[in-house]
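Risk register update: the risk of archive-format incompatibility is retired. Evidence:
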Amino acid sequence: MCGIVGYIGDEDIKEVLVDGLRELEYRGYDSAGIAVLQDNEIQSFKAVGKLKNLEEKTKNFNPHAFGMGIGHTRWATHGKPTEINAHPHLGEFSYVVHNGIIENYQELKKELQAEGVRFLSQTDTEVIVHLFEKSYKALNDPMQAFEATVNKLEGAYAVLLMTKVDPDRIYFAKNGSPMIVGNNDKNDIFFGSSDAALIGKATEVIYLDDGDYGYTSAKEGITLLHNGKEKTLNKKALLGDKISAQKGGFRFFMEKEIYEQSEVLVDTVMGRALDTKIQFEELDPNFFDGIDGITICACGTSYNSGLACAYLFERQAKIRTNVEIASEFRYKEPLLDPKTLFVVISQSGETADTLEALKMARDAGLKTLAICNVDNSSIVRISDYTLLTRAGIEKGVASTKAFATQVMVMWMLSLYIAQHKKTMSEEEISAEIQAIRHIPQAVKVNDKLHEKVKRLSKRYLHGHGFFFIGRDLFYPLALEGALKLKEISYLHAEGYPAGEMKHGPIALADSELFTIALMPKNIHYDKVKSNVEELSARDATILAISPERFELADDYVHTYCSDHAMSEFFEMMVVTQLLALEISVRLGNDVDMPRNLAKSVTVE
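Archived output:
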């Protein structure tokens, strides 16, 4: 999500910055901006929409000769995509760009407002520049002021800051959000969110670690600190082409996006899952007054995420929940009750069937809520309220990180409603929040797991089909696992509730039927085990995914035994995604662009 660039040198600063932002377009954005410092004056330009709008605004701006600049493409998290909310953000004498989320920004903002600071935007980023200027006025030293600022920030951030009180330096800091600094043999200095922005410009780079900060200047070069102590510069040659840089060294965007799930789930949770409660700034606290039921409406992967979370809404929030396929809902002449909250889920926000279902609910007077990844999309504009999933752009047609973030948002929403309805105690909600904070770790892909799945995949390239089976909320995960496989491998796959196999589908069981069994320890393990034994007795080939080794399984992928079902859910999700990926790679398919499919389905 978002992109950052920075530059110090005597090339055309505007062109260097805009070209760097152009190479970061693949990350997704809804607005862009640059700020250039020359002769102790800063000029800033911002525009909503594509980079061409920023280029149009800057067509008469020609900052030749030596100077420095920072630039940013923004994917909205706090505040709508407007010029005021776009970066860079300004104070009295400084400008800042920032990726990530400042978790304690509300607390910092209130402190600054109490001291008379006036905020222009709705963003969390603006607190950084005002906090820096406050610290500078107290310390009269820009480096100490920047260090004091960084020490007060909680959350994920990659920050670049320029200030007129120190016009020779760009200050930087990195924690939980990617940042690279590089140079070339002309002593130009470059910053970027990924290699793509620096290829063809820098010849060597430093990949910053969490907790790194410092400053750069033409005279002093790069000064890197960690915990107040200067750090040795570990420079590496910058290699590769731009497309491979966008993929981050992965073979496919889908593979990269599977690995990114840990990072985007941190973004999804940040500022929402507090110590003892769930907080959604986007929602009116009284929004759920008078609501006695929920209807979730979606298509494809989004439908599967809604189906999974229906279990949570009923189990935790104790609220009746119905899940509808949007393309069917439109034509079934549904009974729409004004006491029902209508929730639509869409990665793109432009899914035609879901959009039309939303219009029906709106016209019937229902309260509406969108779970979406794209701010200012059609679904977002029509809904009463929106919860953004913060997944960043997803280039692989087969959705991975969008599904993960949708489930996470709705899990938090179920707890938010439980708070409102008082259906769970504070202790129970706190325990759920601790589980939520563990999930980014649970979805991290380690080399051992990936290699195991890669080796297994060679055994699953033939046969007459796949059954993915699970119970409870692992049934929707089975549906999603089957969908991922059929989307990119073109092999037949179905998801079933494990208990339903004996009611017909088990007739297909033989050695050429592959069964992917989701066997979590925390939900109905013995029941699922019994269902899998029934398939094994009919000679089906079994791949068990479980923390408990299943002796009758032909193959087995071990998951870590967790005391929470949702940790198991997310960990098994990753295994099914990797399995679909590796089978498809072995079959020689284009994983990112499967046949007959489009990323955003804007037709009926």
